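Reposting from the mailing list since nobody answered there.

I have sequence plus structure tokens for a pair of proteins and want to know whether others read the tokens the same way I do. The first protein:
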Amino acid sequence: MANIDNEQPTVMAEIDNELLEQFFRPARQMQVEDNGFTERVMRHLPDRAICLSRWWTATCIALGIVLFVVFKGWQPLLVSILSLTHDLASSVHPIPFFMTLGVLSCLAVLGTVRQMEQFNSFSY
């Protein structure tokens, strides 16, 4: 415990620290018997959290797919893609455009594979 002026602890502070350490020393050495209860609880917590996380993710994905189908989300998406490709095709040379599109597609596939590998590396 230091003073506000960042000086060395005073003699009084050292005595206070020593008294506190003496007071709490028996509590530090005391152990409470719980017959392995704490270990069992800690062993079950991560499994349940991972399981709930996976169920929540699957539920959100399913809900997103249902909403996409119900509200016909493919229509504005298709119109936007066709408009974009028509605009780009008319103003850009096709070879570099399709090469870029191919590279981006490969990167997307590699990123997806990497995420799937990380997801599968969790221990059950």
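The second protein, same order (residues first, tokens after):
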Amino acid sequence: MSGHPLDDPNPAIFVDPVVPEPVAEGDFGFVEPEHKEFPPIIVIAVTNLCDMACIHCAHPVIKKSPGYKGTFMDPALHTKLVEEMARFKDQLWVVRYAADGESMLHPKFVDMVEETKRAGIGPVDLTTNAMALNEEKMRRLLLAPIDVIDVSLDAHTKETYEKIRIRGKFDKVTANLKRLIELRDELGSPTRIMTSIISQKEALDEVEAFKAYWGQYVDEVLVRGLNTDLGIVNVSETYFKDDLVRWPCPQFWKRVTINHDGAIRFCVEDWFNRGVVATLENHTIQEVWQSPVYEKFRKLHLTGQWNEMEMCSRCNDWQHMEWDHGFEKAIAKVMGKKPIRKVMGSRQAAESGSG
């Protein structure tokens, strides 16, 4: 044992050794050498509260689980996070406010974005359902300026939208999105604006119309794959393929997720927080990223032994965790940055249908 404080993480992460599985072809590893120091993608959940109950999301299930308590990230914790990210700001692909809740519900969220941008960090993205956007918040975000705002709509028509995004108000959200675009242009803000739709049966017939309509207004339209959130979401269709050879999960080389309470977890879809490795209270992101346990995660995935990790063993969502089609690629494209080099050595990434 090395005596590293993260030598013995949550024991529930691992299970008994199993026979390795085949691994897809690819140049898997850190895309850039400096990524060994610090993850290029930081996903931050400033709250676990949400004002919708979308049919494709784990939140409605988690909200009913024992022990759930809606809370907000302490602004002091956010400041600590910003101070560490600022040290590595030149090698970040994106800081993304998303994950377990609707960021706009945090009463200090806009303050947090302003704090992050004052530190010179970017690109900074907000993924939002846009229900809580108002004129003042839009103006402050655009003047910060936040780099990207990604509005999740998931349908072209009001009828479909309100079947998918329970408690969402189609007219309000689409009006907010159009006003955001209009105000961005009025202010001359450099913020890029995207919108997205999930490829799921309720909206399949609307994907092309959605792309054509919103393509007139926004800087980029995204079509995302449908995930099960590690089996939490009971979807009748998954669009997963049985004949794909599995690849290592890119999260171990690209990103970490920070919970509203400062917990650091390795999987963005870990709604039950079974993969929490440490907390910001006791460790830095850099310590976790360079720890023996993260090296073990990477080795297990590179050698096809992902089934020795409890969560990974029952994951099908890996098919939508693509090395060459991640969210960072959309950010690079919409920000006009040079393309990130490709990793996959086969056709599988192009064929798996990830959004």
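Reply #1 (J.P.):
I read it the same way you do. Strands lie at 41-44, 94-97, 124-128, 148-152, 192-198, 220-224, 255-258, 263-265, 276-279.
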